[in-house]
Amino acid sequence: MNKQIPVNQQYLIMLLALLLVAKFILVPIIEWQDELIADTSVKKRQALKAERLLSIETELKQTIENLDEQVAKLNTHVPKVDEDNFKINTQKSLVGIFNSHKIKIERAAWLVPPDRGNMYPVTIQLSLSGRMSDFLASHYDIEANFPAAKIEELRININRHLEKSMGTFKGRISLKFFIQSNA
């Protein structure tokens, strides 16, 4: 009972075996090679970047030294103060400016970042109300007395604005100062 497999079926079996070899052996090998090529190209880019950085190392060191010198020069413009005394004196000056212009300070609060380095910002938030024309004059005085202060936020609601009057305002201003710790 020897049955011979017809020739057509033998060809089909050989074709099936060839397809299985291609599917389970050749395709995984090709995928693995693609991964190796991708990894190699990533490593090549990293190596080129490292080589470029090494070639400009002296320029980078010189740039860092120049930046350190510039920071040192800028530090001379930022006052070295005791934070509490700075806040008290600044707030007294601001109260004096606003009182001289008949502007009411409804609330004042200092904000200081929790992570303080050698130089850090302190911000005072003031809630104000009064006549708009007086606010403009006080704004000029603030800039004249605190040239290093930065207005971080200014929100104003204007009421009763007429043709002959600028009206009244209610608003909030945040002024930021940079200081260096005295320690």
Q: Could you report the average pLDDT, rounded to the nearest whole number?
A: 85
Q: Tell me which CATH architecture of the largest domain applies here.
A: 2-Layer Sandwich
Following the backbone from N to C, one meets helices and strands in this order, namely HHEHEEHEE
- Spans where pLDDT lies below 50 across 5 or more residues: none
End-to-end distance? 105 Å
What is the alpha-carbon Rg in Å? Answer: 37 Å
Number of helices: 4
Amount of helix: 40-55%
Q: In total, how many domains does the architecture comprise?
A: 2
Number of DSSP strands?
5
User: Biggest sheet, in brief?
Assistant: 5 strands, mixed
Q: Look at the structure and give the CATH class of the largest domain.
A: Alpha Beta
Q: What's the CATH topology name of the largest domain?
A: Alpha-Beta Plaits
Coiled coil: 50-77
Keywords: Coiled coil, Membrane, Transmembrane, Transmembrane helix
Transmembrane segments: 12-30
General description of the model:
- Keywords: Coiled coil, Membrane, Transmembrane, Transmembrane helix.
- The chain has two domains: 49 residues; 102 residues, Alpha-Beta Plaits.
- It is 55% helix and 26% strand.
- It is built from four helices and five strands, in the order ααβαββαββ.
